[in-house]
Amino acid sequence: MKTPSPASLRPLTTLAALALAASTVLASTELPPDSTCGFLHHSGDSLPRLTLTDPGNHAWIIQSSPDLAHWTDLQTVRVYNGSLRTAFLADGTGGTRYFRSLYLSTPPDSLSTTALALDLPATTANYANPALPATFRAQPILGQDNTPAANPVTDAGATLGRTLFYDKRLSLNQTLSCASCHQQAHGFSDPAKFSTGFAGGLTSRNSMGLANARWYQRSAFFWDERAATLEIQVLQPIQNAVEMGMTLPLLEIRLAAEPFYTNLFTRAYGTPAVTSDRIARALAQFVRSIISTSTKYDAGTASNFANFTAQETLGRQIFNGQAGNATCAACHGTDNFVPGPAINNNGLENPYLDKGLGAVTGRPQDEGLFKVPSLRNIALTAPYMHDGRFATLEEVVEFYNSGVVNHPNLSPPLRNQNGTPRRLNLTPTQKAALTAFLHTLSDTSLPTDPRFSDPFHYGP
């Protein structure tokens, strides 16, 4: 074990006068790589606080001294996912006190328990048997379910997957997690046009939302569908040189060194073995468990949409082709708003700078073909398209209204009988109505649902 090293020193007066303490910070002698450490105190607090940024997830010993020569251990704390802010008790002896924190290169196993590392409910959350609307339990949505028989969603498996999804250990320098680019508050997408990788580089495509990924009939993933299954897809960003830069053998070693992880793997699979296959299966289970069915649209299905405003009703009619010249439902069908067996070219440009599926297959007939994700929570997942070119839903609607570009592979729903691109030619009122309808597809509970949130402890 590495000898503990002083990380930060700050002189403080008696506990009753901490807010008036001297603010001189003595020079740090050593810190773990990319770490910061400091002591804070505010007049409204009764206790000082230690704040840590520590990608290495070390254990830290808080010590106190009256003279910088004689030190007393006060508390040992552990960083579990890169950062911690915790209050601690001073020794109460009065007079001027100094505090410092020392890190341990290898945390004791006693500090790596599931209860200490994670804020999980006493009863395991229900991932395996979610309440679903009747339309999700019947065709055609039933046939869109891409869950393989060999990897059904289980409560323990999805709990492990949730932990992995938020864990920065999955990136080489332990600074990024899956959730860094798929943020719950934004429908599990990234509000940036392109996501920032572990070393500061940018991805080449926008991160699509993950809600209802379980229902995609073609089963393939990524914008260009290069991953045949979700189980294959979830491991690729981890290994991508721009995104997370990790290797699977190193990840297995890193996770297996954490007792709380071997406990989670045992709960999910019966044994503590940490393997890439198990990691993939757990992540896929969690992603498939991210289900959105509590929208204004869903509430309206039981009452023939009596809860809709006149504007939203008009927008729904336009979407379904009952008014105007729109064909939205052709590519975003069913109550899940996903395509059937087709992958589509929506006429963004000609030629395509990013050839989509065509770059994977090398076939000219596949140029510009991209996955069509569900429109559920579309108002949360801006910007839009594979390259994030549209910042607002209004821009998206206007594109389909007037901007579709002719292309040899343009999908049939976007082409007139004479072969020209189909223009919706909606009035301003109709465009506003269509946008209003799209907003009814957002699930207001999804951005804060604790079943899908970060489970790690970061301090009180």
Overall 3D geometry? elongated
SSE order in H/E notation? EEEEEEEHHHHHHHHHHHHHH
Distance between the termini: 28 Å
Instruction: Note poorly predicted spans.
Output: 13-28
**Average of the residue pLDDT scores:** 91
Beta-strand content estimate: 5-15%
Considering the protein shown, what is the CATH homologous superfamily of the largest domain?
Cytochrome c-like domain
Give the strand order, joined by hyphens, for the main sheet: 1-7-4-5
Q: CATH class of the largest domain, please?
A: Mainly Alpha
Number of strands: 7
Main beta-sheet strand count, sense and barrel state: 4 strands, antiparallel
Query: Any idea how many domains?
Result: 3
Count of helical segments?
14
Structural class by sheet pairing and helices: alpha+beta
CATH topology of the largest domain: Cytochrome Bc1 Complex, Chain D, domain 2
Looking at the overall shape, the CATH architecture of the largest domain is Orthogonal Bundle
The percent of residues in helical segments reads: 10-25%
Radius of gyration, taken over Cα atoms and rounded to an integer in Å: 26 Å
